[in-house]
Structures are given as C-alpha cells and as structure tokens.
Amino acid sequence: MDNDELVSVVKELQTQVRTLSEIQNVKDFMAVWALKLDLIEFLKDESQARLTVNSFMTATGTFDMPFGVWGPDKEAIVKSFLAFAKDPDAEPGKEPSVEALGIGWAVHLYFHQTVRVTPWGDTGLEASFKARELVPLLWNGKAKWLLLDNDSVLRKEKGGDWLMHRYGLKAFNLLSNEDAKWAALQGRAGNNEMFEIEKLEKFASAF
To answer: Is the pLDDT of residue 125 over 80?
Structure first.
C-alpha cells in the first residue's frame, strides 16, 4: 500500500468514526427528548413545553402526528401539546374537558432504532431516526399502552447541536388495561427496589 492509498484509507476511517459518533449523538438526543416529553405530559406546564419546543426544535420544526400536524408555529405546538396532555380523548382542535384527568404520567421508549446521517445544506447534517415507540402511560385515569412507529428527522447546523425538525409518529395504536393496579406497584414496593420473595408474597397478600 503506497502513501496515497494509506491516506485514502485513513480519511475513510475518519469519516466512518465521525458518522458513528453523530449516530450516537442522535440517539443521546432522542433519550433526552423522550424525557422532555414525559415531563411535559406529567407537569402540563406551559413554560416547560415552551422551553422544549424553543430549545430542542428547529425554527420550522413540527410534530407530524396521525391526527394532524402541530407547528411550525411554536405557540401552536405548545397549545396542542398541553391540550393533549390535559385530555388525550379530546377531538383534535377542541378544548380539553375540565373534568378530564389527563395524562397522569408517561414513559416514552424507543426500540429497534435505526439512524442514518447524511449531509444537509452546505455544511449541516440531517438524521433519519426510525424506531418502534412504546409509551406506557396513565390515560385519563386508566393504565394504557401506546404503540407507534417513529419516523423522525433531526438537523444539525455546523458547530451546533442536533435539533428535532420533524417528530413523526405513525400507526397510533392504543391498548387498554382494564385493571390499573400495576400502576401502583412502585408506590407499594418502594423506590424501584428489587423484590425479594418475602416482599413479593407480602405485596400479593394485600390484594
């Protein structure tokens, strides 16, 4: 291998390392993004929602949902997101019911992730993020599961951070649990402590 071939190989390896690093950065961003969504739905706080959409989305970023598109106007995203958190059974565009319990808690999880990073514009990067999304949550007082296909696009300016450009959700499936006792498991068992047989038997005898 001559020097020119060696230089070519090194450049190719450097490109691969940079690409792998950016793929991991996208996955790290999505982990933080999921926590932000959890927090907004739990708190239903306007300032928290506004901070997220202004700090973690591009200027023209949108939520592309099965029941419509939120944005790119950031205040429209905040209003729609909070309305959904306050009453997920409300029709899109309608005010949430004052009697609704809303989303008590939610945990956004992304499985089978695939990330593809490509050049965007003159100096930026764009990432296609695809995953199966699973969201256990308390939906108007009932424990349920959301099963979705996540097809999102993120963008990064040169020297900047990754931002959500299109949070895309497809195949919106909602599964119900008629008995929500499992939702109280953490409160009865302690703060995520591992079960011992004696504790498990004591816990089971309470029902």
So the answer is: yes
